[in-house]
Specification:
It contains 8 helices and 15 strands. Helices cover about 25% and strands about 25% of the residues. The longest helix has 11 residues, at about 45-55.
């Protein structure tokens, strides 16, 4: 599907919300990680993501759920309370991992063979979704990864000379690296033949995207220069600067 002339309300948003959130224990023994409260109004992470995407006119959502998935369904329902349409695809023992969950949703026709934006359920990032979709369509890409052009190392970095002396120590420096941030667009039709190569249990970023590159499919990079948060652990969660991310959160609308 060419997106150059396609309304964003025709794009499907696929939100990955099935993980167990082991790095958030013991809180995730009770609450699934995508439902962890964020912001002044303490709305779930997942709600902030939906809220952001809805600003760009995206109204069709598929939630890939598993661990304590009924809490997510009971909160969001069919999406009508949020002015969107939500469908669910539940993880099982055959289709495992982020890629397997995506493949199951595709094979059961929950995801149509159209362009989809895939968003990991623990990522807060004010991505310009309109620009991303326009770029993806204009490039004729099979997948477009949203990447940041810098990365803050979470530990100190030592510079060592040939004699083993530490000549400089930089605490948590920013490095000029292109790093993926858990947001991408994908032509869902790519999934048609993936099972014969990758099976039914695989990862999107670790397996599917490298497979696409090896197959010669067109994988592009969309540079995101704003900040972003991977709320994947309790340590990262408590360090969120809500003042810097407030334009992303539902609280500001």
């Amino acid at each position: 599907m060419s997106l150059c002339h396609t309304s964003l309300n025709k794009v499907n948003a696929i939100l990955l919300a099935g993980g167990e959130g082991t790095r958030f224990k013991p809180y995730t023994d009770i609450v699934p990680k995508p439902m962890i409260p964020v912001g002044v109004e303490e709305k779930p992470i997942l709600e902030h993501i939906i809220c952001w995407l809805k600003r760009f006119g995206i109204t069709n959502y598929v939630l890939l759920v598993g661990y304590r998935w009924k809490q997510i369904r009971n909160y969001f329902g069919d999406g009508s309370r949020h002015g969107v349409s939500i469908k669910y695809s539940i993880d099982d023992e055959v289709y495992r991992g982020t890629g397997g969950a995506l493949l199951k949703a595709y094979k059961t026709n929950v995801i149509p063979e159209d362009t989809a934006i895939i968003w990991y359920g623990d990522i807060l990032a004010p991505v310009d979704v309109s620009a991303l979709i326009e770029f993806h369509g204009a490039e004729g890409a099979d997948a477009t990864l949203v990447v940041s052009d810098k990365y803050k190392v979470p530990v100190g970095v030592a510079h060592i000379d040939s004699l083993g002396n530490v000549v400089e120590l930089t605490e948590k420096p920013w490095l000029n690296l292109y790093v993926t941030i858990g947001v991408l667009t994908l032509e869902a039709s790519v999934l048609k033949n993936v099972e014969s190569s990758l099976g039914s249990a695989f990862d999107i970023m670790g397996d599917l995207i490298p497979w696409m590159i090896r197959k010669g499919l067109k994988v592009k990079a969309f540079i995101h220069k704003d900040l972003w948060y991977d709320v994947g652990s309790l340590e990262r969660y408590v360090k969120i600067d809500y003042e810097k991310i407030k334009h992303f959160l539902c609280d500001s609308t």
